DNA sequence: TTGAAAGCGGTACCAA
DNA sequence: TTGGTACCGCTTTCAA
């Protein structure tokens, strides 16, 4: 039926072992032999059997990328950044890794399920992107899963969430708190005093950190936070819309809105426009992430600029162990805001 | 090291074969035995070895989803729709399929590369979403790849692109032409006569079909297409922005713009706003897809509404072989589906 | 209903 | 530099 390595070996008049060596390119093979093998591969249209290879080598070329919401461009950028950085070590035409993008939808159960699925596949690496859920039981469950994965040789990368102790994971964190602070400082600088805040879901690290930054800025400026001016919701457009309507209902005198991320900001803008308010003439809006499409919808955005795609790519590179120099504190970015690896030093490389 | 099926067998005092049967649930096993096995699995924290399983069974539980641009929410919606529909037949806790979202970036080479990678993994199914490239050589190459995949037992689904002969593929197509026509008809109905058209990339099925629909509508209304009022570009925001600026430069008197998809429409809106034009007071904008976030940015959008997520889910279900009966708006005709967004009435194939 | 054992297609160690 | 060959961990007849 399907062509196997043995078929190729027969055709090239060599042993299966030799074919394997040629294909993996990690062993010396005479040029002439190699030619013959490659020719046979080509003629037979041979395609390596991934599962067999993974079984024998005890590792696969799959890389899992967990995202909270695949319909959110933010995660799309992250995913494609990682994807573009996980070329295998062999450099061969066929020696590539396959990125498996898993959509958790922000659900703790699905997060664990996917982790198990990736463990089952003996994934080469797993990249967890976006904020983490803060529920203690879940955090413990994830930590234990990650530990097992690491034990089995899977490289673990955390991109945008707090480090996990003893998981041998590379952690790349964003300065959510600082970002949140700057965003609000920016609005304060424009003279705004009544600022609504559309926060992310409760129990999420990013939600809390950004909100803390916001409050920090208010406090530093001596502005008292009006009660009811913070509304929580999921990180999507609908939630941003709903939350903003809610804010307007509570206090129609606000002059600025901070959105916990750009997708949310889009929803906020929609609600404001619908209410007959103009942006930024009547109300300023500031979003958090660095999504290209929101630049003009969210004028204040430019004050905070996280090169997330680059950060994700870098995390992927670190996970694959082909990082040149240590990440160090800040050199990842040239922008206004810093992205810093939590430990500052890549671990487990 | 890692726990194997044999370990579980030993602990449960049964043979490996029995454990396998319990796990797969496709064989009669005494209730008591099953309990014992499940208990052992639990105690040992056993996780099936995917590659080994795939090798022995000659098929894996991976489902590949090819998308043109993972940062485009359109594909995110498609991907998550497929993902939510590919639960395995077993229904077991561990019997799930894993969706592999592959980002081709619209590149022919990467499309083929991913197809090979999935072939190597012995994927259970492959779903190709979005418009296809029309280059003859590439079409042939893809067709041949798909045929091989099908031969090897991989189910192939085409979602949003033309059927491929002899590939044994399920094809789900959208009425791009009809949609394009209606969009323009809508604008014509509003009284517009000078309509700019921001088209997708050349050599793409969706680009051509939608554009044909546009021209059809113009012709039917007796409106002559002004030269230079069609500009091509990729399906992203930046292209929409650039193309619209270009259009404005060529003819500042246009009163409406059709964008070949929603992401492009967002860019178009940005360019118009930047030019000091108001939407829809000065210029109407119509996008094509059915993305939730663009509803207000593109007021005319509601004239065309394709239930894409549902369609993708349906395609996934069909591929997995558990399709029941056709529902309204979607019809199954000889393995091919036609989704007609605007009227909701299925068209013949 | 359960067990024994022969593969599935590669990989990598040991020799030659 | 190349060949021989034990596995890798699971599935699936074939018997019992």
TrEMBL record, chains A, B:
Pfam families: LacI, Peripla_BP_3. CDD domains: HTH_LacI, PBP1_LacI_sugar_binding-like. PROSITE patterns: HTH_LACI_1, HTH_LACI_2. Residues 3-57 form the HTH lacI-type domain. Keywords: DNA-binding, Transcription, Transcription regulation. GO terms for molecular function: DNA-binding transcription factor activity; transcription cis-regulatory region binding. PANTHER family: LACI-RELATED TRANSCRIPTIONAL REPRESSOR, LACTOSE OPERON REPRESSOR. This is LacI family DNA-binding transcriptional regulator. It comes from Streptomyces tabacisoli.
């Amino acid at each position: 039926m399907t062509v196997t390595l043995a078929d190729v070996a027969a055709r090239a008049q060599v042993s299966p072992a030799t074919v394997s060596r040629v294909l993996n390119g990690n062993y010396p093979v005479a040029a002439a032999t190699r030619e013959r093998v490659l020719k046979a591969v080509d003629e037979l249209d041979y395609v390596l059997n991934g599962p067999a290879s993974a079984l024998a080598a005890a590792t696969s070329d799959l890389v899992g990328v967990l995202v909270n919401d695949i319909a959110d461009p933010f995660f799309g950028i992250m995913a494609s950044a990682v994807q573009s950085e996980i070329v295998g070590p062999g450099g061969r035409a066929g020696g590539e890794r396959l990125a498996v993008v898993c959509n958790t939808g922000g659900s703790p159960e699905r997060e664990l399920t996917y982790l198990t699925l990736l463990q089952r596949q003996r994934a080469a690496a797993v990249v967890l992107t976006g904020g983490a859920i803060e529920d203690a039981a879940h955090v413990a469950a994830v930590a234990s899963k990650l530990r097992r994965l690491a034990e089995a040789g899977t490289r673990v990368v955390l991109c945008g969430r707090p480090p996990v102790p003893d998981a041998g994971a590379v952690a790349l964190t964003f300065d959510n708190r600082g970002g949140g602070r700057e965003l609000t400082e920016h609005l304060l600088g424009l003279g705004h005093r009544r600022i609504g805040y559309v926060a992310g879901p409760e129990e999420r690290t990013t939600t809390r950190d950004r909100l803390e930054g916001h409050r920090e800025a208010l406090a530093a400026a001596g502005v008292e936070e009006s009660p009811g001016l913070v509304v929580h919701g999921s990180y999507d457009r609908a939630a941003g819309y709903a939350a903003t309507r809610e804010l307007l209902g509570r206090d129609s005198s606000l002059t600025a809105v901070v959105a916990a991320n750009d997708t949310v900001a889009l929803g906020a803008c929609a609600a404001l426009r619908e209410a007959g308010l103009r942006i930024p003439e009547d109300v300023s809006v500031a979003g958090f992430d660095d999504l290209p499409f929101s630049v003009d919808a969210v004028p204040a955005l430019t004050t905070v600029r996280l090169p997330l795609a680059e950060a994700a790519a870098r995390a992927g590179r670190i996970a694959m162990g082909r990082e040149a120099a240590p990440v160090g504190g800040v050199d990842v970015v040239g922008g206004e805001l810093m992205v810093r690896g939590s430990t500052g030093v890549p671990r487990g490389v």
